[in-house]
Amino acid sequence: YLKTFEGRICSNYKEACQVRGLLENDEHWNATLEEAAFMHSPRMLRDLFAVMLQVCAVSNPNQLWINHQENLSEDILHRVRIQQRNMDLEFSTEILNEALIIIEDKVRSLGGSDLKSVGLPQPNRDSSTIDDVLRERTYNVSERRFLEENEGKMLPDQREIFQKITDSVFQETGGIFFLDAPGGTGKTFLLNLILAMVRESDEIALAVASSGIAATLLTGGRTAHSTFKLPLNITVIATLTCNISRRSGMAKVLKCCKLIIWI
C-alpha cells in the first residue's frame, strides 16, 4: 500500500517518497553539474559527481546520471574515436560502462561502496576494456593549465623542494622526502604542482591520503587503503598484506609508477 501512489506502484519506498514530493528536489545538483560541464573536463565532472553521491544525499542519483551521462563520458568517447580512427562513433553502452567504473572507483576512494548501493546501475567490470596503466597516464588538460599558470608563482623554498623531487623522479635516483611546514604555507599547492609536472611527462604519479577528505586536496587523490588494498581491521585478518595480485592492473600501475605522494 505504501508503495502505491495515484495508481502507480513504485519499485521501492524511496521512489514512493519521491513521487509524493517528500524528498528534497535534485534541481540544484542538476544545475551544478550543468554549470560545471561548461567550465571543467569530464574527468573533473566525474570527481564532482562522485563527491555528490558520497556526501550530498542526492535524492535520485540515477536520474542525475541519465541527465549528464554524456558529459560525464565525453573524454572516453573521444579516446575511442581516436583509437578506432572513426570520428563518427557515438556513445555506446561500453563507453558509459567505463565512465561508471571510473565513478565507482572514485566513490570507493572517498570511503563509499559500489554504485548499486547509491541507486546507480552497477558497472560490468568483466566487460571493461579500461587499461589501468593507460588510465593513470591519461593527462588532464586542466592539470597542464594549472602547471603553466602556477609554476612561476612558487617561492624560493617551494622551488627548491619542487626541483629536488622532480629531479629525483626524472633522473631515477629514488628517495623518500618528508615535507613539513605550518598550515597555510602552500604544501598542497606545491604537491599538486609536482603531480602535474610528472603526469605531463607521461609518467604515473599516485596521490594518496589517509582519509577521503584529505584525498580531495590532491589532484587525482584517493585513500591509501583503497589504492593499496590495505586491510582495515588488522585484529581479525591473519595476513597483514596488501590485497593486490601480481597480475592485476594495479600491480602494473605500481611497477610503472614514478612517484607516490602520501599525505
Automatic annotation (TrEMBL):
List, for all copies, the residue spans of the domain called DNA helicase Pif1-like DEAD-box helicase. Answer: 156-262
The EC number of this protein is: 5.6.2.3
Q: What family is it from?
A: Belongs to the helicase family.
Which of UniProt's keywords are assigned here? ATP-binding, DNA damage, DNA recombination, DNA repair, Helicase, Hydrolase, Nucleotide-binding
Q: Keyword Protease on this protein? A: no
Q: Name one GO molecular function term.
A: 5'-3' DNA helicase activity
BP terms from Gene Ontology: DNA recombination; DNA repair; telomere maintenance
Organism superkingdom: Eukaryota
Q: Which cofactor does it need?
A: Mg(2+)
Provide the protein name: ATP-dependent DNA helicase
What catalytic reaction does the record list?
ATP + H2O = ADP + phosphate + H(+)
